[in-house]
From TrEMBL:
InterPro entries: CAP_dom, CAP_sf. The lineage of its organism: Bacteria, Pseudomonadati, Pseudomonadota, Gammaproteobacteria, Vibrionales. Residues 22-68 are annotated as: Disordered. Coiled coil: none annotated. Residues 78-205 form the SCP domain. This is CAP domain-containing protein. Residues 23-56 have a biased composition (Low complexity). PANTHER family: SCP DOMAIN-CONTAINING PROTEIN (PTHR31157:SF1). It comes from Vibrio japonicus.
Length: 209
């Protein structure tokens, strides 16, 4: 019998001063804007209060994305995300317009690596770290001052194409990837062959103050 690995996903969308929440599903999204909080897979990222970014007109595509400069993980992940952002996407029944490309940020990468390493070492998947840290805590600990941020996590997918396909097929994760509230990202994948899931993925998105 062929073994099919368990694939689990989780997403959290938080902006402004942050928030928390979730549900019992393996995929969840949370949004917060001040005192207004909603939970569930239909959570969306609210406006950050400034001028929202637009792609111009009603176009379903943004500027073309250049192929990755190398086969480095960062280049490949950034390319995959920006390819998705360059076209209108259906995120669980919500049409998300094409949005500008993100840039890579090493502080956000550091926050992602910290969480992927933690999940891989302790063999779990959650937005709360084994030390009790939230995504916002981990971002803040790098010195990054965020006006908006979001996090996607997943476990078990073998490569970037597989994890991106899983995230884009999930409403909350797709909305994080397609959010116009963020301008930068970092990501990490950490492997531990002695664990249940084998590989642990984290994407962290942000917009600096």
């Amino acid at each position: 019998m062929k073994f099919i690995p368990l694939i689990a996903l989780s997403a959290v969308i938080l902006t402004g001063c942050g928030g928390s929440g979730g549900d019992s599903n393996s995929s969840d999204a949370v949004s917060s804007n001040g005192s207004n909080t909603s939970t569930g897979t239909e959570g969306t990222a609210p406006s950050t209060g400034g001028n929202s970014e637009t792609t111009g007109g009603n176009s379903g595509t943004a500027d073309p994305v250049s192929p990755p400069a190398s086969n480095d993980f960062a280049d490949l992940m950034l390319y995959a995300v920006n390819q998705a952002r360059s076209q209108e996407q259906n995120c669980g029944g919500t049409m998300m317009p094409a949005v500008p490309a993100l840039t890579w940020d090493y502080s956000l990468e550091s926050a992602a690596y910290r969480h992927s390493s933690d999940m891989a070492n302790a063999d779990f998947m959650d937005h709360t770290g084994s030390d009790g840290s939230s995504p916002g805590d981990r971002i803040e600990d790098t010195g990054y001052v965020a006006r908006a941020w979001a996090e996607n996590v997943a476990v078990g997918q073998k490569d970037i194409d597989a994890v991106m396909a899983a995230w884009m097929a999930s409403s909350g994760h797709c909305k994080n990837i397609m959010s116009s509230s963020v301008t930068e990202m970092g990501a990490s994948a950490v492997e531990n062959s002695g664990t249940k899931y084998g590989i642990y993925w984290t994407q962290v998105f942000g917009r600096p103050q």
